[in-house]
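Dear U.,

Please find below the material for section 3 of the report. The protein was modelled together with pyridoxal-5'-phosphate; I have listed the sequence and SMILES used, followed by the predicted complex structure.
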Amino acid sequence: MGTSRRHFIAQVSQGMIGTWVLNALPETSHARYIIAKDEKITHDDEPFWNVVRDQFPLTRDRTYFNNGTIGPSPYPVIESVKRAMDDLDGRGEYDGWETARPKIAKFMNVDETEISLTHNVTEGINIVAGGLPLKKGDEVIMTTHEHAGNALPWLNRAHLDDIVIKTFKPALTADENLNRINDLITSRTKVIAIPHITCTAGHVFPIKEIAKLGRDKGLWVFFDGAHGPGMIPFNLHDIGCDFYATCCHKWMCGPKGTGFLYVRKEMLDAVQAHWIGAYSDSGWDLTVDPPQFKGYVPTAHRYDFATQSAPIYIGLGAAIDFLYHIGMDNIARRNKALATHLQQELLKLGDNIEMLTPTEEHSRGAVIGFRLKNVTYDKFGEHASKKGFRIRLVGESHLNSIRISTHLYNNFDEVNRFVEAVKELA
Ligand SMILES: Cc1ncc(COP(=O)(O)O)c(C=O)c1O
């Protein structure tokens, strides 16, 4: 164990975080930046993860396993939003949301010009689904496990323009998922539009291989990344997809109502911007005859426009800093270890459980989906709620299953208690 690590544990055990506090934070603040970024923190380093937990005001009255729906923010994010509101409203100004764009770009390793600021995943999906030049009979490949946020924008396009949606059921291995996509491709296929990680049971798709398959076949490749950034570290540029939409209010633990859409530089002109406004354009003039529209800015900024809420995007910057300081590798190691432990314990229940999440290492992350053989999901939901667990029941795709999300503020004790609650009914 390195000196700095020992020093850290000593400080934590004395109830101090000392040098781990960034001076920039006011003394009255609850917020602490826990800086571990360059250090490997193991998945079971409880003193470290307890300090992380303390940064979340999330109530301890119940156990929160629903990060897949909404990611509670830690103090540095909450306080950053509040400070920005005080500051901006105090000055009667409104600037600052632009600070998020370069931070997002750096976090995802893409160019700032490829990032559009959105407010949720669905908004980014609508920009792509509504903007691609698709015509009657063109085919889009999706899964049977879509969230409404990805299903509806494409179904709407089918409704409006008679495009055809073709679906496959997610399989339990990466190879089989690639095969299923490949089998659906025809001469009419134009787009693959699937989740990075399913909202139902957390299948992690092999997105780099899928992007390559799409490229080789001349298709546009779009990923619904609601469950990617903040759960697992990855380099978006390296993935090689054309479009990636996400929110920052799930796994990134950012302010609610923040998100982004990545549009690969070369694809900017393929996605027609339908809603534009201030900052989307490269010039206009209504005083000349004929009135002039010079076109769009040569960046993904063309899709976001007008006045934004600066405090929430400033808070998003604080969320990215928070993740950086802890280290995305460390976070992913922890949230996946918790989910793996849960999956293994549930599998021990044998025939009483139907595991829906892949066991293949690279096809799963921090979301576990399962069903109980003899207990309906809603009955289990009531039981879990009485026991103090906030979980997600999955009615999508008629799955009628249970979904547990584990993130950096959870611990093994919580998972073990949940397994006990399952055993009581299973
Ligand atoms: C896979 C997936 N896509 C899209 C969404 C919609 O997210 P948002 O409400 O941020 O648009 C969700 C939300 O849970 C999701 O899980």
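For the text of the report, you could mention the following: The pocket of pyridoxal-5'-phosphate is lined by residues 69, 120-122, 147, 149-150, 195, 199, 224, 226-227, 247 (CB under 6 Å).

Regards,
Y.
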